[in-house]
């Protein structure tokens, strides 16, 4: 399973890269707008992210009509070979997804909230679908049940679109995505930071080192 970071913040991307855990990045208009407030143009921010990331980076179009969505998609693709165009799922988005896929441009079909949308996005040739699990949990629906549903649908019809679990809020979402066989999880930096920690690991390490110090009175390494 691939680990993507859901951010437009270059420092977070650098830190994830240092951990050796970064397979890709996803952004959305809210995340990029937040970074632009701190300075930098859309082009500067996106170019930095594309250069810092070896894997795919999803950048979303903001137009709502077909012609402008395609124009924006082509401009996004010009910024880097690893740019994936994020297209919101609706009837216009579906048409755009078809057109971009026909040109060999990878599409991340976003704002997916049911299995039918996921099937249609795959039929339109999307490389990724982004079901938003946290936002379903927010309205007392089971976000992870949607991942299970999409996995079943894609297996039934041998669809190759990658299931990219988005709107992740906790390590449990990540664990359940792994168990269900999702292809990618995209994580806010705070969730990524929580993943390696386990209280029993910290406790175990302290005990080993305390025992050593008690026995030898120092932490000098004997080799
Ligand atoms: O990037 C799309 C998605 O991950 C947004 O998450 O937390 O705003 O629902 P959230």
Proportion of beta-strand residues: 15-25%
Estimate the mean pLDDT confidence: 97
Tally the beta strands: 8
Number of domains: 1
Bound molecules: SN-glycerol-3-phosphate
Give me the secondary-structure category: alpha/beta
Radius of gyration, CA atoms, in whole angstroms: 20 Å
**Low-confidence runs:** none
What is the number of helical segments per DSSP (H or I, 4+ residues)? 11
How far is the N terminus from the C terminus? Answer: 39 Å
The CATH topology is given as TIM Barrel
Please describe the biggest sheet, giving its number of strands, its sense, and whether it closes into a barrel: 8 strands, parallel, barrel
Please specify the SSE layout and strand pairing.
Layout: E1 2-6, H1 10-18, E2 24-26, H2 29-37, H3 42-52, E3 57-60, H4 66-78, E4 83-88, H5 91-102, E5 107-112, H6 115-123, E6 128-131, H7 133-138, H8 143-156, E7 162-165, H9 171-180, E8 184-187, H10 189-194, H11 199-216
Parallel strand pairs: 1-2, 1-8, 2-3, 3-4, 4-5, 5-6, 6-7, 7-8
Bound molecules: SN-glycerol-3-phosphate (G3P).
Any key phrases for this structure?
TIM Barrel, 223 residues, globular, 11 helices, alpha/beta
Task: Explain what this protein looks like in three dimensions.
- This protein is α/β, with parallel strands linked by helices.
- It has helices at residues 10-18, 29-37, 42-52, 66-78, 91-102, 115-123, 133-138, 143-156, 171-180, 189-194, 199-216; strands at 2-6, 24-26, 57-60, 83-88, 107-112, 128-131, 162-165, 184-187.
- Helices cover 52% and strands 16% of the residues.
- The chain has 11 helices and 8 strands.
- The model has no long low-confidence stretch (mean pLDDT 97).
- It has one domain: TIM Barrel.
- It has an 8-stranded parallel beta barrel, surrounded by 6 helices.
- Strand 5, helix 6 and strand 6 (128-131) form a beta-alpha-beta unit.
- SN-glycerol-3-phosphate (G3P) binds at residues 6, 26, 28, 132, 134-135, 166-167, 186.
